[in-house]
Every structure is written in structure tokens, then in C-alpha cells.
């Protein structure tokens, strides 16, 4: 295998083969590299794209980054069907097979501990959004200029306006309080099925393009045997509170629970 080595994940040996048609980053099929009872899933990538300098430039290119992330996650998804992988960070690259084995040797004990913790478990993501309710400004009906008159100033109109604004502000605050209370209750209920949880920062609406305010962005490490009940619980809550939207994603490899080897803090599965 010529070129640099792109590493997707670390696994224990598994008895299945990956799909023959599976391709990874740069369109190259992934291979297994064994060392001391651990397996690294790797593929060869061109030096002109993945050496330090060109890679740094590529990581600023959103289109390239999106394509590479999609290929990376497709390999992880295929692994999740046959084992419980420890996914590595996007664009983890080494000079050659020897460099990958040196990395595996250096982190062998930590890899084994993490794989034991992830074995038989998957990650589910749950997000709660409070739908925004924008009240359009009231505009007076169009009146011909010739018929317009300056309206008389009503006594107390300023006080009435301020009172109305206070009522609107309080209703707005109560809405967010209800949304946050719902999110807390849901997180507590879901956590009973999970062996570990992560609360991530709310998603940036400008980046995610999701409507509404994100009041819960959580990941749950759930045994596969409990996943059906976990999903059923999420489904039962989806229409529980008007104006709230619950989104479920997964099952993923345990991106949020891979420690320093996996996704950066604050990032969940795809």
C-alpha cells in the first residue's frame, strides 16, 4: 500500500469482513492493520493532499472537508454494524504502517480500556428545539395621504404600551422556562437507559440551519440491548409539549465517548 496512512478507528478483532464495495477517504477501500490483538482500520491517501501543509490548507476548504468527513463516517458506520469501534479524529494520518503500529503500541492500554467500555454499546443523539414564534409588527392600514390626520394622543397610552410589552416579555420567558424544564425531564428519563451521557453546547442555528432555539444537545451511550426502549421513549415524547421539536439521531459509533482519541469536545456523532 503506497501513500500515507489514514486511520479511521481502532477495534478488537472481529469475525466479519467489511463490504467489498466500501470506499473510504480519497476513494480507497479501507484495510485492517493488526498489532498486538488490536486492529487499526486504515487506507492509503496521497501525500499531495494529506501531508502536513496541504492538509492544513484543505481543512479550511469547506467542500473538501465535507467530502472527507462523509467518507470517514461511511467507514465508521460500516464498522459499527460488525463491531464496537473506537473512532479516531477526522484526518488522523501517519507516514506508513510502522507509524500506525507505533501509535497503537503507545496507546495500547488506553485503547483496550476504552474498547472494553464501548463494547456492545452505541451512541444516540437527542436534540430539543423550541420553535420560535415571531409576532409581526402591527402596521396601520394604508390610507390615502389626503385623508391622513394626526391621531389624538390618548391619555395613558404610553403606560398601556409598556404594560403590554412586559406581558409579552414575561410570556416569552415562561416559554423558554417550560422548554428548559421539558429538556431537563427528558434528559433525566433518557439517562436511565444510558451508561454515560454528554451534554454538548447548543447548536449554532446559522451553521446547523435548524429552525428554533436548541435547548438540549445531548449524546447517550446506550447498550444495544436497551436501544429499542430508548428509541420508544424518545418517540413517546415527541408530541408531549406544543411548540417543542425532539430530534433523534443514531445509532452511531461512540464518537462522544472516545476520550481524547475521538471527536473534539462539543461535537457529537454525524
Report on the architecture of this protein.
- Helix content is 38%, strand content 22%.
- By secondary structure, it is α+β, with helices and mostly antiparallel strands.
- It folds into 2 domains: 4-118, no CATH class; 121-135 and 157-261, Alpha-Beta Plaits (2-Layer Sandwich).
- Strands 1, 2, 3, 4 and 5 form a 5-stranded antiparallel beta sheet that branches.
In summary, what is this structure?
This protein is 38% helix and 22% strand. The strands form two sheets. Strands 1, 2, 3, 4 and 5 form a five-stranded antiparallel β-sheet that branches. It has a four-stranded antiparallel β-sheet with strand order 7-8-6-9.
Amino acid at each position: 500500500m503506497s501513500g500515507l496512512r489514514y486511520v479511521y478507528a481502532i477495534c478488537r478483532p472481529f469475525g466479519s469482513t467489511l463490504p467489498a464495495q466500501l470506499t473510504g477517504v480519497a476513494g480507497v477501500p479501507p484495510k485492517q492493520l493488526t498489532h498486538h490483538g488490536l486492529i487499526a482500520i486504515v487506507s492509503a491517501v496521497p501525500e499531495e493532499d494529506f501531508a502536513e501543509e496541504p492538509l492544513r490548507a484543505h481543512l479550511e476548504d469547506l467542500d473538501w472537508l465535507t467530502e472527507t468527513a462523509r467518507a470517514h463516517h461511511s467507514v465508521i458506520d460500516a464498522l459499527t454494524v460488525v463491531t464496537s469501534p473506537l473512532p479516531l479524529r477526522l484526518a488522523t494520518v501517519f507516514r506508513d504502517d510502522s507509524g500506525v503500529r507505533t501509535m497503537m503500541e503507545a496507546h495500547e492500554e488506553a485503547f483496550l480500556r476504552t474498547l472494553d467500555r464501548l463494547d456492545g454499546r452505541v451512541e444516540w443523539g437527542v436534540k430539543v428545539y423550541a420553535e420560535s414564534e415571531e409576532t409581526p409588527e402591527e402596521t396601520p392600514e394604508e390610507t390615502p395621504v389626503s385623508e391622513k390626520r394626526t391621531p389624538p394622543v390618548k391619555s395613558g397610552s404610553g403606560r398601556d404600551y409598556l404594560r403590554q410589552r412586559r406581558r409579552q416579555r414575561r410570556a416569552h420567558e415562561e416559554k423558554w422556562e417550560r422548554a428548559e424544564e421539558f429538556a431537563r425531564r427528558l434528559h433525566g428519563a433518557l439517562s436511565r437507559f444510558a451508561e454515560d451521557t454528554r451534554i454538548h453546547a447548543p447548536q449554532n442555528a446559522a451553521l446547523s440551519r435548524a429552525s428554533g432555539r436548541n435547548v438540549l444537545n445531548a449524546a447517550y451511550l446506550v447498550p444495544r440491548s436497551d436501544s429499542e426502549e430508548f428509541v420508544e421513549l424518545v418517540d413517546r415524547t415527541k408530541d408531549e409539549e406544543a411548540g417543542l421539536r425532539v430530534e433523534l439521531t443514531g445509532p452511531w459509533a461512540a464518537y462522544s465517548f472516545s476520550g481524547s482519541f475521538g471527536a473534539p469536545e462539543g461535537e457529537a456523532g454525524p
